[in-house]
Amino acid sequence: MGPLWSLGALLCLLPGSSLAQTVRVLDEVTGFLGQEAVLPCHFVKAAPDSKVSQVTWMKEASGRKQNVAVFHPEHGPSFPMDREGTRIRFRTPSLEDTTLVIGPLRLDDQGTYFCEFATYPGGNQDGVTHLIVLAKPTNTAEAHEVKVSNLEQPVATCTSAQGKPPARITWQSSLGGNTSTSEVTNADGTITVTSQYRLVPSKEANGQRVTCVVEHKSLPQPETLPVTLSILYPPEVSIVGYDDNWYLSRNEAMLTCRADGNPMPTEFIWSTSSGPLPKTVTVQGGNLLVQNVDASVNTTFICQATNRVGQVATEQVIFVRDRPARRQSGGAGALAGSIVGGILAVAILGAILAVFLLRRRRRQREQRGTKGSYDPKTRVFGNGTAPPPARDFAELDRPLKATPGRRRDEDEDDEDDYEDEREEQRPPPYGYAGHHHHRFEDEDQLGPMLRLGSALHGYEYDDMESQHDGSIISKTAVYV
């Protein structure tokens, strides 16, 4: 037992032994430039008979330890590296809690710190803390005014100034440019990072947006800085207002000079290809007003627009007519009129076709005949019965002679032929002059026939009279 007890006592007395007591610190503390950093340190007794006589904070520099702060129960705190005691202090001066506070931080405060306790009988015990000092950078981004060119050049710059450690800069863009980045170490130890966005400047790139993205340990999330590009280009000029209908004595004709550019053109100069402006013309900036059109404005007008990049001119030829030109209606109104006209035409054609078909069907029906119709060629009624006995009017039953000197044209329409043929086949009214008189044995049959004949030929019933032999004849019949 003797040798084992001696070995345990020896281990308890060795400096740095963690079997008797413990020093509690943080492995790493992060502070920001200009602010305070808190380095916790506590001594925990492992044996009731341990005694602490002094605590010392030291910083490792160039391979050596330098005293930063010392606390002694009798002599109090002292700060060898801060004689005035304005930047370094103990949070609660005591041997149990020797937390160190440093601030405002400087970049040279960064380093490795030791919190060491002098104890008895355990000897000196310490804990190690790494202090990291961060410098939050100032981030900015701006566009460069550059002219349109065929060479690649910087069009935007993003800067992360006085940061520690250096920031990381990237770009977001759909223009497909390139980037270049550089770093500069400042006198206080901070680092400034500069990144340029480069491309071939064109008119299409003007007004486009690119975004600078800055990442740094001092930022909870990346910072985005949008930039709107400014590409300078000369004016693009056009003249509007001429409608090709300028005629003599026309009033209030006007031309307008439209110009686009970066920067926007602010100066417009009007002239003509034949000399000074006509007296009837008034210039109002980009507008040229003609009070009364006459022969003097039958010329070529020129508009020149200027910005700080360049000057560009364009021209408009004016032709003055003797009288207004006839204009055909166009546009949406003409299209609507055409559609309505087409619909009306189709409707009219449809109506004509319907009338034609109805007339044709009626003619076919008349040609086939109806029940009870009379056929003069066969001398038979449509119901198949023979006609009643007729009186002998052979002389009057002969066909009429054609009128001398008149003949049918061989090129007449089929319709006329059809009408003539139908007239020849139409049965005559009973009792009409020039045709046989038919005998009716029954008076009941005679009345309806009288009414039918008078209705078909426009006679009144009272104008008809019956003969003693049963035939009927009109009182006003005319014989040919």
From TrEMBL:
Domain Ig-like intervals: 15-115, 137-228, 235-319
Pfam family, one: V-set
UniProtKB keywords: Cell adhesion, Cell junction, Cell membrane, Disulfide bond, Glycoprotein, Immunoglobulin domain, Membrane, Repeat, Signal, Transmembrane, Transmembrane helix
Cross-referenced SMART domains: IG (SM00409), IGv (SM00406)
Segments of skewed composition (Acidic residues): 410-422
PROSITE patterns listed in its UniProt record: IG_LIKE
Gene3D superfamilies per UniProt: Immunoglobulins
Subcellular location: Cell junction, Adherens junction; Cell membrane
Protein name per the record: Nectin cell adhesion molecule 3
Organism: Anolis carolinensis
